[in-house]
Design goal:
The chain is mainly alpha-helical and 265 residues long. The chain has one domain. The protein contains 11 helices and no strands.
């Protein structure tokens, strides 16, 4: 495991310039020739939250955290969820979409899905602007425990990278993976505490949510930002162990498939 971690670290360090160049190219490619540019990173999740917030709050009578407006509750969770969902969705086709680059020169192939996740971190930064605005408008005070958000965000990124490595590699061999990934992410979102909190889940089902690491992570991030409720040490440890497991598994699968990438593409 130590050797594997060193290998990952060395690959990233040696190719850091390419990593950032690919990440910035990804961002520019998505927003170039658009009138609003990077503002779409704010508009898309905000419109989605407004529509879903209206439907779930007024039709399904959903509720979030007591004292927190539902639109703030929902939009905050969607902002963090989209980091995972958009990263994995883009990563699933990241290698197959770079066939010409992969055939021209050699570099660690893992740089490509890593750059995809890095590019989505840029979206997250822009999406935090309307989150901050909503917190100001609805007078939601940030608790001192919010600093722990950085720790949970690191776990979030570890899980996202591992899953991105897995789907990007598998999609090289089986192009159905990108289609299945889209369906999986949609189902996963509704089975995660995005539109509701874990505290609203019946007691007998909560044990299953412990294994949904990304759902648990998003719920912890939202609670830290909106209420300052610090997650328990056991919850953090559980999310960390599962995230590291997904990361290591995704990396191992990627390295096994990596020698076949150029040949298949």
């Amino acid at each position: 495991m130590i050797k594997s971690k060193r290998s990952i670290y060395n690959n990233i360090i040696r190719s850091k310039d390419l990593l950032f160049a690919l990440a910035m190219r990804d961002v520019k490619a998505r927003y170039q020739l658009t009138i609003l540019g990077l503002y779409w990173a704010i508009i898309n999740p905000l419109v989605m939250a407004l529509i879903m917030g209206f439907v779930f709050e007024n039709v399904f009578r959903a509720s979030g955290i007591e004292g927190i407006p539902y639109i703030v509750f929902l939009f905050t969770a969607l902002t963090f969820w989209n980091l995972f969902s958009n990263s994995v969705g883009s990563a699933s086709t990241s290698l197959t979409g770079q066939a010409s680059l992969l055939s021209k020169q050699y570099f660690p192939r893992i740089i490509i899905p890593t750059a995809t996740v890095l590019a989505r971190l840029v979206d997250l930064c822009f999406s935090m602007v309307p989150v901050a605005l909503l917190l100001y408008i609805y007078k939601v005070n940030i608790n001192i425990n919010a600093w722990m958000l950085l720790l949970i965000l690191i776990i979030h990124i570890i899980f996202t990278l591992g899953f991105s490595y897995l789907v990007s590699a598998l999609n090289v061999l089986y192009r159905d993976v990108s289609q299945v990934t889209g369906l999986l992410l949609m189902l996963w979102m509704y089975l995660s505490p995005i539109f509701y909190s874990i505290s609203q889940v019946p007691e007998e089902f909560r044990i299953y949510f412990k294994y949904n690491a990304i759902g648990q992570i998003v719920d912890m991030e939202r609670n830290l930002l909106l209420t300052g409720q610090a997650p328990s040490g056991s919850d953090i440890l559980s999310a960390m162990i599962i995230s590291l497991g997904v990361f290591i598994f995704g990396y191992i699968v990627f390295k096994k498939i990596e020698p076949l990438i150029a040949e298949v593409l």
